[in-house]
Every structure is written in C-alpha cells, then in structure tokens.
Amino acid sequence: MIARSSLLYPFLAFLIAILIGGGMTWSVWLVETQRAQTEFERTADLAIDRVVTRLEQHVVLLQSTRGLFVAQRGAVDRDVFGRFLTGVDLVNELAGIQGIGFARMVPVTSEKVIQDEVMTRYGITAEVRPVTEQPWRASIVLIEPANDRNIAALGFDMYADATRRSAMDRAVASGQPQMSGPVHLVQEITAEKQTGVLIYLALPGATSTTPASGFVYAPFRGGDLVRAALSSGPPLAVVLTVRDTGAPDQAIYDDGAEAAPGLTLTRSVELVGRQWSFTVAEAAGSAIPRRHLGSILIGLVSLLFALAAGLAVRARQHEVVQAQEVVAAAKREADYRELLLQEMKHRIKNHIARIQSIARQSARGATDVKAFSETFDARLQAMAAVQEILAGTAVAQADVRAILGKELQQCLDTAEVEHLMDGPSVILNERQAHAFALVAHELVTNAMKYGGLSGLGRGLRITWAVRPGGDGKPPVLAFDWQEQFTPDADAPASGVGFGSRLIDVSLKGELSGTLTRDFHAQGLHIALTFPLASDMSDRLPRKA
User: Fold this and answer.
1) Which helix (H) or strand (E) holds 303?
2) Residue 127, by phi and psi: left (phi above 0), alpha (psi -120 to 50) or beta?
3) Contact between 203 and 174 (Cβ < 8 Å)
4) From CA 357, how far away is CA 376, in angstroms rounded?
5) 10 Å Cβ neighbour count for 4?
6) Are 61 and 88 in contact (CB under 8 A)?
7) How are strands ordered across the β-sheet holding 238-244?
8) Closest alpha carbon to 134 in 107, 114, 156
9) Which residues contact 323 (CB under 8 A, 6 or more apart)?
10) 84: helix, coil or strand?
C-alpha cells in the first residue's frame, strides 16, 4: 500500500496549479461577462428601437391620412381612401397596423348621420353602439382595409369608452397624435385575442369648447405590432415584454418565451403621449458556453495541467495498486468462467432431459413414424422459440401466455397446453419477459424431469391473475403453479440446485418478486408473484 505521506506531494502540486488556473479563469470570466452585458444591452436597445421606429412610421402615415381628409374637407370617398392606403402597402411595408379609419364626431342625438354615412360607403346598416352618457359620439364611419375584423367595428362609438375618450381629448387639446392606454379592440372577433391600443389625430378646427369634426385613427393589436417590428431585421435572441406604465397589469405584448437566467434590462420610453415600459431578457438557449469560451478553455487547460502534475507524481505509486487490481480481475474472470461453465453444463443436461421428455410425449400419441416425426419436430421448434427469448433475441415485449405456451409445447400438444393455463393477457417488457422466460424454463424443466410432466406425474395446472399494488404501487402478477404426483413420489430437492439458483436470481434480482414452494401428498404448489413494470401497466386488459 502507498504511504499517506507520499500522497501529500501530488496533492500540493495539483492544488497550486488549480489555484493559479482558477485565478486566471475568473479574470477572463469577468471580462467576458462584461462584454456579454454590453452586447446584450445593445441588442435589447435594438429590439426596443425597432418597435419605437415602427410606431413612429405609423404616426407619419396617420398624419398623411389627416392631410388627405383636410384636403377633402372631411368628406373622403371610400374608393379614394382605399387607393391611398393601397399605395402605402399596409400589409407588407407597414405590417402590424390593423388599418386606418375615420370616426365622425356628432351630437349623441344624431345617430342617423352615422348610419347614413356607413350605408353610403359600405351599403350596410351599422348599429351605433354602445349606450353612452356623453353628449357627443365619435363613431367609426370609415376604416380600411375592409376585412371582417374592420367591418365589425363600423358604428362603434369610441368616445363612450373612458380610455379611448382620454386619448381623443388629449389629441384635441394638443393637436398632436395621442395614443390610448391598453384596450380590448372591437375588431377582436376571433378566439385568438390580443391587447390593443389606438392612436388618434383630431382634424383641425377643434377648441376646448368645440369638438373636432372627427378623428383619423389607427387601431393596433399589440402582439401583431411588436412581432412585425421585431421581424424587420435579423432575428434577435431576446424575450420582450411591453407594458403601459399607466396600466401595468395588462401587458401590451408578452411573447411567453422562456428567458435565460441572468441578463435582463428595462427601459421606459415616451411614445405618442404614453409611457411604455420595455422589459428585455436574454432568450433561453443562448450560447453561454460560446460566450465564455475563452474562460472555459483556460479553466480546462488549467485543470488538465493540474491533473497531469498530480498524476505524474503518482504514476509509479499506482503500479502496486494496478498489480493488485490485475490479480483481483483475474480471479473475477476465473469465477465468471466457472459460473458460465456450470450454467452451460446445467443447460446441456436440461436440454437432454427436455429432448428425452419430448420424445416420450411425442411417442405416446404417434401411430406411425411420420406422425412421431411431425410431432417431435414441432415441439423442437417450440423449444427453439423459447431459447430465442432466453437468449434475448426475441421481440422487445412478450405475452405471459405466449411464453408459457412455448415452454409447454415442447412436451404437450397445443390443445393440452391451452387446457393447462388460465389467466388474462399480460404484456411484459423486454427485461421482464427475458427473466420470466428463464423462470418458466426452469419450472417446466423440473416438471418434465421430476414433477407433474414426468413419467410418474399426474398433470400440471397454471393460473395467474393481476392484483392491485396499493398505495400508488404498480400492479402485481400472481401465479399458482400446481403439479400432481403419484402418492409415493419423493419430495423434490429443497432448492439448492443450480436451476433453483437461476430461478432465485431471475425472480428476486430481475423481477423483484417472491416464490414459495409447498410440497404435499398430492403434489407441489408454487406461489410466484412480482410487480409489473410501470411502462407496461397501461397494457393490462380493462374491465368493462
């Protein structure tokens, strides 16, 4: 054995190298972290800038639309308005906006003016809604493009809603575009709904006492707006949440993606009369290992150097230990070979006994050589099928009845085999099927050599059932194995043979089960139980 004092020097060499390498790694890690923070902030600012820029583009479009209405003195024909928006290309270049519309401002008693204007432009009767206590209405009379969402908005009085009304009043007072707080757009007619906002621009001529003749406005679905803005350039590996600081409980946009821990940033931006809060986090799956590649490499090199230093010192010290391990490995190999030899001898003896039993059973009912040959060959094929399961070359799962049937068909006809068995269909996975086949193989072999299927035996009866496990445990498969003997038959061995050892190893080690043997005057009763694998529990037959 190596003395303890001799282990001190390689440990000290390893420790010193680790401390030096750890200091270098930590320094590089800090530099890389600072660089990653700077790069993330630049990416986050770029994402925010895309949203702000896209919204500013829509504001410019809204101002251009107001110019059109001013030039037409508030009476813009729908065809002219449609051609104007077609030239702007809302769908592609300015994606994210739901449309551009015009809301006519009239006294609350003049609802027919709204209905007539909608009928003239769209040929439909619009319901002026909702009920309002305000003296004025600002109902939607024109909105393009005329899709199902926007048509559903015609006649809606936006001035009746406090959030929309606040933005309209600010637009009249300032003469500038003003954005509303988060609202539920009247265009949300499908199951997939988003938080919306609106931007209003009053037509000129309004005063504090005289309302505007109308408002040019644009509705936005928050999710569509932000996604369109973020897609206007190369993909950004960020998770973005947008909220109005005046209504923080209702997010304008939240992509719901998983964020990586660590890097996050919050910016507040003044946008069209509202304060928006942008929270940006690094997207999950970002290449942290690549970001810290330098420090990781330095750490690995330092670790390898420390290990090399320690291992070099201890190389010769390990020679004795390695020699001892070689001796122990040789002994284990010899024990393993002895085990294989014993198992091979046991299998050969079993095969010979089985073939003899198969020959006897086949000869009992044979009327001639041909019948004997056919029966004998069929049972040898059944024996070969069982050997496939025992060798682990069968399918990945097997039925209990099929395994037992193949074993019994080596010495009995198919009709006799079915008569001996009674139990439900139970599917075992590959591991349990292999272990159970080995147990069944040994039990049938013993029955053929000494028990109910031997020359002096009086039969065999096998029944099984599935019992609940209880307390959340998997179901248990319970077998009753009944063999009948002649009255003067001797009790079988007490379970010390190699076959019994194989049964115990397979049952307890692989199946986590139990087995009890009860030899009595009429025969042998074996009770065998083991829990079913959890991945096969759903394959059990269901009760009606």
Assistant:
1) helix 293-314
2) beta
3) no
4) 10
5) 7
6) yes
7) 247-254, 238-244, 274-283, 259-271
8) 107
9) none
10) helix
Instruction: Report the mean per-residue pLDDT for the chain.
Output: 82
Evaluate if pTM is beyond 0.70: no
CA 350 to chain centroid = 49
Tokens coding 362? 């086949």
**CB distance 534 to 474 below 8 Å:** yes
Q: Is the pLDDT of residue 169 over 80?
A: yes
Integer Cα distance of 301 and 436 in angstroms: 51
- Asked if 39 contacts 237 with a C-beta cutoff of 8 angstroms, the reply is no
Q: What is the pLDDT of residues 425-484, one digit of tens each?
A: 998 887 788 778 878 888 888 888 778 887 777 788 999 999 987 787 889 999 999 988
Q: What is the pLDDT of residue 493?
A: 53
Tell me if 462 sits within 8 A of 365, measured CB to CB.
Answer: no
CATH fold label, 324-539: Heat Shock Protein 90 (3.30.565)
For the chain, give every residue range classified as CATH 3.30.565.10. 324-539
Q: Which tens digits make up the pLDDT trace of 475-496?
A: 999 999 998 887 665 655 554 5
Residue 216 vs residues 56, 80, 82: alpha-carbon distances, Å: 16, 15, 14
Between helices 8-71 and 222-230, what is the axis angle to 10°? 110
- Given the candidates 1.10.3860, 2.60.40, 3.30.450, 3.30.70, the CATH classification of the domain at 1-218+288-315 is 3.30.450
Q: Is 246:181 a contact under the CB 8 Å cutoff?
A: yes
- Amino acid making up residue 133: E
Give CA–CA dist 492/18, Å, rounded.
Answer: 66
Distance of CA 238 to the CA centre of its chain: 22
Instruction: Identify the pLDDT of residue 45.
Output: 94
Q: Are strands 274-283 and 238-244 parallel, antiparallel or unpaired?
A: antiparallel
**What DSSP state is assigned to residue 135?**
S
Alpha-carbon distance of 367 to 375, in angstroms, equals 11
Joined tokens for residue 256: 């719901």
SS3 498: helix
Per the CB < 8 A criterion, the answer to whether 379 and 470 are in contact is no
Asked if residue 289 has pLDDT above 60, the reply is: no
H/E run at residue 26: helix 8-71
Q: How far apart, in whole angstroms, are the C-alpha atoms of residue 150 and residue 479? A: 71
| Rounded-to-integer distance, Cα 50 and Cα 236, Å | 11
The verdict on whether omega for the bond into residue 130 sits within 30 degrees of 0, i.e. cis, is: yes
Q: For 377-427, what is each residue's pLDDT tens digit?
A: 766 665 666 666 656 545 567 888 988 888 888 778 777 888 889 999 998
Find, among 82, 101, 89, 71, the residue nearest to 199 by Cα: 101
pLDDT of residue 544: 40
CB 485 within 8 A of CB 522: yes
Q: Find, among 249, 94, 268, 131, the residue nearest to 181 by Cα.
A: 249
Range list for CATH 3.30.450 in the chain: 1-218+288-315
pLDDT at 199: 97
